[in-house]
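User: Earlier you gave me the apo prediction for this protein. Now I'd like the version with adenosine-5'-triphosphate bound, so I can compare the two side by side. Same sequence as before, with the ligand SMILES added.
Assistant: Got it. Here's the input I'm using:
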Amino acid sequence: MTGRAPSRAGTEAPAVLAAARVAHRDIRAIRGPLLVVGGVEGVGWDEAVEVATSAGPRHGLVLDLDEDRATVQVFEGTEGLAPGAVDVRFAGRPLHLEVGTGWLGRVCNGRGAPLDGGPPVTGARSAPVAGWPLNPVDREPPHEPVVTGVSAIDALTTLVRGQKLPIFSVAGLPHLRLATQIAAQATSAGEQFRVVFAALGLTHADIAYVRDRLEGRTATGELVLFLNAADDPAIERILTPRLALTVAEHLAFEEGADVLVVVSDMTNYAEAVREVSAARREIPARRGYPGYLYSDLASLYERCGRVRGRAGSVTVVPVLTMPAGDVTHPVPDLTGYITEGQIVLSPEIDARGVYPPVDTLGSLSRLMRHGAGPGRTREDHLDVAAQVLAALAHARQSAALAELVGASALGETDRSYLAYREAVERDLLDQRDDEARTLDDTLDRAWRALATLPRHELTMVSPEQVARRLPSGEEDDHG
Amino acid sequence: MDGVSAAAPAVSRAGRMVRVSGPLLEAEGVPDVRMGEILRVGSDALSAEVVAVEGTRATMQAYEYTGGVRVGDPAVRTGEPLSGLFGPGLLGRAFDGLMRPLTDAPLWLSPARAETGRDGDATRWRFVPAVAPGTEVGEGAMLGTVPGAGAVEHRVVVPVGVSGVVGWIADEGEVDAEARVAEVGGRAVHLSERWPMRRPRPFAARLSDPAPLHTGQRVLDLLFPVARGGAAAVTGGFGTGKTMLLQQVAKWCDADVIVYVGCGERGNEMADVLEDFARLVDARTGGRLIDRTVVVANTSNMPMMARELSIYTGIGIAEFYRDMGHDAVVIADSTSRWAEALREFANRRGDLPAEEGFPANLASELAAFYERAGRVTTLGGHDASVTVIGAVSPPGGDLSEPVTTITQRFVRAMWTLDRDLAYARHYPAVHWAGSFARDADGLARWQTVQGDAEWAARRATALEILAEADRLASLAEVIGVNSLPGRERMVALGGRLLREAVLAQNALSPNDATCSDAKGAALLDLVLAVVEACHAAIDRGVTATAIERVDFGPVIRAAQDVGPEDADAIAAIRARMLATLGALT
Ligand SMILES: Nc1ncnc2c1ncn2[C@@H]1O[C@H](COP(=O)(O)OP(=O)(O)OP(=O)(O)O)[C@@H](O)[C@H]1O
Ligand SMILES: [Mg+2]
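And here is the structure of the complex with adenosine-5'-triphosphate:
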């Protein structure tokens, strides 16, 4: 259950290597990903641990101290460990990671060890991977956009620098394609833009796809890849996003870059947390997930943001698949309670052949009103987005009515809404997965879709905007 | 740290740590340890509160990150419960759950900052005495004021348990935050007072006749009002608008002091509150709203047990201002995160769980929390209040979960946010069917006394139309709206007008962010009159389709088009609409 023994740990020094001290050999118990070490003295809670085995070192954290016993969570799992054949050393401090610009352009495994044939990544400073809470009074409210080049997002659910905006999806939908596309083409006007991509429990085929699609940005030294594959240790998934965020925080708040962290798939992360909780025999809250899952996820997502008086930002786009498409499942539910909106992918829209299949009405960027509009994107942005959404809501009702009474029995207005919805899906939402649209192009497309509606239906945009932006001559038909 | 006198670490007062599991700590050999007392643990002297005692073994909850705490580390008694420093310097500032000022704290909140506190605060305050030596004063009586400590009058009152003759009082002048400013009945009174955070401050009597807290949010003020000193909760799944509604109430309600507690929620939201409130011109004072606001921020990534404490910190601060004679409102977003902290700790202790892993005392803890709301006569004889408004974040939006159901029992008003309304961007998404206001009758009497005898009737009619429209909507789904008889279609139309013209209120609209009682009443009157005119037209034989074709835009836009106080402009719209409808044949 803890995955195969890490074959590539070898002798290479993973980036999370702890400066280890006295060796302990008194292993009292091994249970799931946990190791209970006896005869321990002077070890602090949350200390980093190195477990030396004949096949190379593994890494862990102290979860519990009780008299002379320390319970240690082993990131690489305990598979193959035998009491008596391991040396446990405590590092005297929490797990740290060396940070720096050396990470850029690198491809690493889920523990930060290189997979690209290069030397281990080092940095001049090291930082605790759990991070410290950012003082809320030092936060700068986010208010500048990230342009993803994806119309559905840029137009209707604008991503804002310093925001956490998850993608809620269902198994089988192209969420990884979308996440990779965002990682490949997102920018922030003219600033230093960097991407940290963390894969959690992805298949090798998916990993190959991600590496391939992100090769360009890796080569230019704008991107870091942390890759935990489906057959890598499951518990390592608890570590990987923390490494990604630690690297990102440094690049953002020390180096002044706008950093986008993309993590896929957070459902695999939550399962790893559940596995540790079960091994600790904790009382679960809902569906076997521990009661602290909310706080645990928050300790990751709250690491994004902006800092008053400093350049740089950390923006997080986590991807998660909703088990059975159920948004009330604890993983999407608790995520929704932490993040600032959500981008929802829909099987129905996917079935209509639209990519990305964003459910525009179910999606919301809560920070959009701060990061879009006059002085941020374009002066008509917020109004045109509100109009597109309101009209889509109307179109949904028209579609429901059409199902009831038949499209032919619809009034003229309702029919125009059905045509409008098609225009939105075809001209605005649908795009190629390697197509990076400018914001102007995206917003002009929104206006073109609105042009299929009767003028008097456009109540959320001003007459001046209509005069300036709405394509004239409805005869300019799109089929 | 605030409130804990740094007791000398005498050997006899220290025990030895034997267990560390996140916030759960156990120490052995602590002599005479008391429940609720604070121990200082480890080399960073972290504060931990004793929650169970067995012989000389103490179980504690740590208020800070316990990384690095070792078995064998000392656990030193302080002999005191956790208390905060209550005095000038609260308004306009932000504190963590332990009431340590965040404004002076470093960028990254590592435990190394444990010792920074207001004790080192060098701010000087101007004290102005209000009584002369020789005056006989009782508990809660005003001794003086501190001008400049925020936008409401800061009054220094005689502390609880102190009374007698003023033997000495400081002259007007500048003093330190903790300076002695008077002597009453032989006891020193300081400018700031230490008070245990969890202990309710006493008052003389509860007042029972309700008066409303005006919130500026129509759906609340017209349908589900909360009384001054009442307790209310807002519940709904993620993204349904709890935080926005609470912030709207905080910005626009007619209380004197706002205590905004961010309990286990987002850092960006706290930054938003701080920025917004600093920018917002306060209609009541003409100054900045932040100057009569205290922010307590214990975000979701800050230590869990400090989150648990933060709502008591907030209530304690509110009671402190209440005892000066002010009306205070505590906003707690979200009480579910507080309940989760209770659960997390109880589980680690191995307590037998009740529902969904929550401890069995959840109900009594929640009851005690909401009971601290109240309109009272203070010890000093003022009519003052603490209103408590909490958010509840039900997992999966499931309103049958324990925190929601228990909260429903103890609050006077419940505002239930509906996912479908939020999905349709109808904000605030307060659903008329799932919400209640237990004080509505009492508040109707108050409205009558104030000259609005129609308040209760208007509310009842509106609720009736909304319920009837809902019933018809489900019927229409089956048979199609056009198959409904004319009268029914008018009810459906009435429901839509009520929802869109009265209940929906965009927090971002310059004209409509807040709404006066007069404008709210005029809007509701407008819609009810229009609905009546529609029915009259049907009775005259006008077809439903002809009525539905009328442009109701002016009604729907009235709230946005008309200023927050402008009831007359709405009367004008009403006259025009009634003329149009009256002319239909
Ligand atoms: N009164 C309102 N006016 C305009 N927009 C609103 C209003 N209420 C809610 N919204 C919209 O809904 C979004 C979510 O609202 P809010 O943050 O208050 O939800 P919440 O219930 O507190 O969610 P969570 O439980 O996740 O904290 C807002 O960002 C805003 O876009
Ligand atoms: Mg909220």
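For your comparison, keep in mind: Confidence is low (pLDDT under 50) at residues 1-20, 474-479 of chain A.
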